[in-house]
């Protein structure tokens, strides 16, 4: 089972509207770390080449070799946006807006003329030592040239604290029947009371075309949709956690097979990413038609999941390969290539980076685990010309051959064509196992053991027993 919980992040603001002629103004919900400080100028908000006007603006006149700085602590925040208004009343000079990255001040914008600035701070600009500075962006200012700044605002978004999911359920499933997938479920969240959607996924033993999840009973705030490829039931809100808990308990598993077998595992977790119990990692297919492998590697590394670092998936077991390949929604790059040495296929992302798993071409040697499609990797169109295809991806189901499972791998060039089954459609991101990842409690698992059993109902109690 899967839970997708959109958080409503709290926000704080650091602001100076310059409505009072003081360098100590704090017009937001939080305080700056001290006052504005002028350099190469007497720090006086009511006079000089840099001052706050009686009309409520920060004014710059003859700014050469002068600048003004203010510090703020942004270490408690995840996303921060800077906005301000500017107005050049005379002249042609510009002002550079600079932010501190922990080492130096870098220009993030040049104020030229009249307008507004909106800027999303980079990660290294969000720290306990954050600072903003206004300095000349040109030269040869004179006393007639004048620029005004107003409505300075940092909007800082608090990190979304992950909910804690606790569930239980370990029962027998009798063929021909229907049974709840969980016996208990609680979702507690320190900063949210509800969410927009919950995803419930069969994460182990899923049989496409036979297995089904169905919401029973009445749930006025929740609608459903079933994805047979991913084995996923979407419970669509918005609704409170209490309402979603009731819906999860009312979700039932059934199989249309006359003779189903095995164990079905369900993962109850927060977010869109799919959870695989055998690895305790999360997997997410990102649709990005036409993306090349190099850009996909960068994009995957820029993603996080409740603090877990993302990377192009490294699939080191058949269970992991099947889960990512068969229950993903499309073709996807994965984190392997043989770029450095032809025929030495290695995982180059995530915790397994540097591990060689295959040696040679389609007739090569499996060193750890590989899941190649029939006749792969083959450096198409000519095995005798190396380095034509150096990057691994999960093959489209229409080109699986040679008895390989759906989700098998193919080698492709870094940039593919734009159409057909060998055109890149996206990439698979894996989260988990990276040094420094937080310890999360966002997942609970339940299971159903399919058995040749019978159901005995005694008044209000139903018993499921093995026939033997």
Summarize the structure.
With 468 residues, the protein is mainly β. It is 6% helix and 42% strand. The protein has helices at residues 241-249, 293-301, 318-326; strands at residues 11-16, 37-39, 50-52, 58-61, 67-72, 79-90, 95-100, 105-111, 115-120, 130-136, 146-157, 164-168, 170-173, 178-180, 184-188, 194-204, 211-215, 223-227, 232-240, 251-255, 263-269, 274-276, 281-287, 304-305, 308-312, 332-337, 344-347, 356-359, 365-366, 391-394, 409-412, 426-431, 443-450, 453-458, 461-466.
Task: List key phrases describing it.
35 strands; mainly beta; 3 helices; 468 residues; disordered N terminus; 6-stranded antiparallel sheet
Describe it:
By secondary structure, this protein is mainly beta. Helices cover 6% and strands 42% of the residues. A hairpin with an 8-residue loop joins β27 (344-347) and β28. The chain is globular, with a radius of gyration of 29 Å. It starts with 10 loop residues before the first strand and ends with a strand.
């Amino acid at each position: 089972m899967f839970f997708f919980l959109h958080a409503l992040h709290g926000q704080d603001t650091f602001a100076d509207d310059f409505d009072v002629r003081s360098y100590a103004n704090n017009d937001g919900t939080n305080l700056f770390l001290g006052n504005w400080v002028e350099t190469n100028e007497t720090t006086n908000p009511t006079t000089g080449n840099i001052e706050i006007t009686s009309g409520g603006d920060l004014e710059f006149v003859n700014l050469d070799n002068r600048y003004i700085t203010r510090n703020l602590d942004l270490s408690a925040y995840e996303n921060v946006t800077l906005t301000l208004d500017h107005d050049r009343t005379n002249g042609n000079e510009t002002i550079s807006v600079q932010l501190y990255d922990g080492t130096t001040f870098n220009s993030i914008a040049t104020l030229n003329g009249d307008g507004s600035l909106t800027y999303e701070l980079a990660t290294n600009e969000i720290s306990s030592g954050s600072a903003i500075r206004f300095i000349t962006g040109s030269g040869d200012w004179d006393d007639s040239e004048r620029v005004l700044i107003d409505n300075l605002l940092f909007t800082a978004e608090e990190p979304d604290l992950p909910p804690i999911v606790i569930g239980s359920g370990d029962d027998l499933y009798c063929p021909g029947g229907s049974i709840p997938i969980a016996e208990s479920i609680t979702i507690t969240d320190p900063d949210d009371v509800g969410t927009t959607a919950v995803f419930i996924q069969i994460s182990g033993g899923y049989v496409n075309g036979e297995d089904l999840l169905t919401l029973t009973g009445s749930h006025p705030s929740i609608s459903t949709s079933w994805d047979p490829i991913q084995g996923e039931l979407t419970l669509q809100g918005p609704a409170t956690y209490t309402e979603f808990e009731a819906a999860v308990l009312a979700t039932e598993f059934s199989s249309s097979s006359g003779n189903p077998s095995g164990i079905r595992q369900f993962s109850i977790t927060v977010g869109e990413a799919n959870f695989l119990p055998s690895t305790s990692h999360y997997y997410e297919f990102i649709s990005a038609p036409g993306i090349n492998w190099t850009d996909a590697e960068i994009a995957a590394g820029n993603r996080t999941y409740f603090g877990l670092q993302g990377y192009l998936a490294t699939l080191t077991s058949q269970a992991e390969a099947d889960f990512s390949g068969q229950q993903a929604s499309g073709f996807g790059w994965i984190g392997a290539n043989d770029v450095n040495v032809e025929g030495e296929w290695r995982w180059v992302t995530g915790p397994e980076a540097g591990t060689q798993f295959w040696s040679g071409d389609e007739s090569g040697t499996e060193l750890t685990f590989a899941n190649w499609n029939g006749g792969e990797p083959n450096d198409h169109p000519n095995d005798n010309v190396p380095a034509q295809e150096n990057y691994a991806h999960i093959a489209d189901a229409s080109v699986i051959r040679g008895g390989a499972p759906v989700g098998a791998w193919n080698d492709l060039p870094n940039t593919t064509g734009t159409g057909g089954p060998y055109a890149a459609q996206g990439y698979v991101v894996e989260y988990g196992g990276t040094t420094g990842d937080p310890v999360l409690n966002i997942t609970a698992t339940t299971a159903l053991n399919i058995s040749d059993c019978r159901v005995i109902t005694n008044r209000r109690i139903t018993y499921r027993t093995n026939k033997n």
